[in-house]
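Dear U.,

For the methods section draft, I wanted the exact inputs and outputs in one place so we can describe them consistently. I've listed the two proteins in the order they'll appear in the manuscript figures. Please don't edit the token lines directly; just add comments below if something needs changing.

First protein:
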Amino acid sequence: MRRSYSHIALAALGAVALLAGLALAVVFYMAHQPALAVAELGLLGLATWVYLSPRFYAWRYVVPGIIAALVFIVLPMVYTLLIGFTNYSSSHLLPFDRATEVLLNRTDSTGDSLGFKLYPAQGKKYKLAFTSDDDKVFVSEAIALEGKTVKAPLTAAPAEPAEDPLFLKDVIALQPALEKVVATLPDGTELRLSSLRRFSAMKPAFKRNADGTLTDVAEGVVLKPDFKQGYWVKPSGEPVEPGFRVNVGFDNYVQIFTDKRFFEPFGRVFGWTVSFAALNTIFTFAIGILLATALNWDALRYRNFYRMMLFLPYAVPAFISIPIFRGLFNENLGEINMALGLFFDVRPSWFSDATLARTMVLIVNTWLGYPYMMILSMGLIKAIPSELYEASALAGAGPLTNFFRITLPLIGKPIAPLLIASFACNFNNLTLIALLTGGAPDYLDTQVPVGATDLLASYTYRIAFQDSGQNYALACAISSIVFLIVAALAIINLRLFKVNSNNV
């Protein structure tokens, strides 16, 4: 009986998951993402086949992990790489067809406008009443506001309708539909919504020609698409916004290494990123192994208490600890500067001086990272046979000799892959920089926003979201370079420290 209930529950869960997958595919399609919809249906079909076919019983435990890796790792990585080969930015957000549609929908006002009021009519229809500046009244027939383009011919009337017009809040609710209304005066002038109180005489700003080009109605010039720049351009070469996305090949990567605006700050940031990752790995490992060695001393009393207290920095989430440190290092009100001023009469400019800011970043990240190294070292030290230390004691060796001749060599090889992983992790430590310094202090001799404490991750973030151009494509190109560096470190980690099961 219980087995039948479990089968029914599994079947119901599978049906819900299937319906949810189909609904998600519909959402992708409605969002004009047919490729994602097809991919999602393909994954859904594959999962259904695996879970219904007895031949693939063992794969039922693997498929969720594979799908998760594809969706959360492979897809964002591929998407980032693809954007790096385009000109995607705040000026080139739209595809070509959509940018062209925006230009064709653009209108210019001729200066004539009329105030309007909206009156309810029967059958969920409405009447429009217009009043000119010389008190002439024009009224439309009852029209349905259904969100599509509606033609509303106007006729002269002696006065406005006797009914009460709709309140402004009701007009606001109908604003999207009113924007589709084209009211036509008796002389043929077309009026379109220009504000919540007025309709204005409008004319198209651009017209499409038979050969696919556009004509600027106001200037009478012909615009042609430039698929190298990603703009519609005038004969004078002046681009017309909005731009559109185009494939630029390796231009972004070439720009990083050839354009002085980006290469010079990129070189500075890259050098600091490598230094930060290397120094932080060294400092955290050094402090961690020293504390682990001390805590492994048998004569030390209250070791569990010390171990718990020293582990606390790792237990507190970084997004809580880092803002606290930001307050402690505050140049005017921070407790650290207050103590330094009291005892040494100095008040360092932690956030203004580049060297001090980098020192502060290293101090904070070392504080956050040493417990991890301490715990790893404690576990590895426990695995060292005690007979080695006993023999060393009989030979008259001291603590330093034991540390450098026994402890460090024996834990060096097992912990080396973790040190490389720590180096790679610190390479992308965006959280620390974003919450502590924001990259400050900024360089004053660069054209892009970049500071002395920016890592490649935060530098990329600032180019994508804080620069005036918001160059997403260039940021993705830099992210791809960072990915290649981290991937190379992972390969080195796997190749140099590959553990053979026969040696375990």
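Second protein (the one for the lower panel):
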Amino acid sequence: MISFYQENTGLLEEAVQEEKTLSIYNLIVDGGLGGQIIIAILVVLLAVALYIYFERFFAIKSASKVDKNFMNQIKDYVSNGKLESANSLCKSTDTPTARLIGKGISRIGKPLDDINTAIETAGKLEIYQLEKNVSVLATIAGVAPMIGFLGTVIGMIVAIHAIANAGGQIDIKMLSDGLYTAMTTTVAGLIVGIIAYITYNHLVVRTNKVVYQMEAKSVEFLDLLNEPV
């Protein structure tokens, strides 16, 4: 009786140990070739998404830094007719706002509508630069879960194929490859999609903040030109 209990306890411990040693690597390896290809594609998409996020994040962060005294200096230079000094200040300040103001300063002397149009055109170019490759994140956010679901379909086909060839004798081990493929690719696709979606929205919020900042400074500059001499 004692030996039977010890034997069953030993088997239970072995089962628990086997369950604990199941890792993500094992899930991917046991998922078959189809699952491994899907996972590899998702890993590449994740790497691309993270690269774009961090590259754009630091670029937008740099673009949002504007010296608080910048507009005060511009006002002083323009009011005193020192347009060359104002233009030099804009060129030495590497921010979208400074480039917009510099574009406006280079048009001083022309009608206000022309200055406004020049600033708006320059602003569109700056926004385009800020949003460069951000749309790729949105694409990854939508495509990654679908690729994961494609892996799910492939896994279910593999499982059904195993059942069809089992001749009425279904063994769970025969279905494991298909089930692993179905589950792991779905989870991986959702994880990549969620990460891409969150990073995309974060970049959109930060980009909008810079755009509002550019608009505010541009209006401030145009108001300066509208002030009576």
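Candidate sentences for the figure legend, describing the second protein: Confidence is low (pLDDT under 50) at residues 4-20. Residues 70-130 form one domain.

Thanks,
Y.
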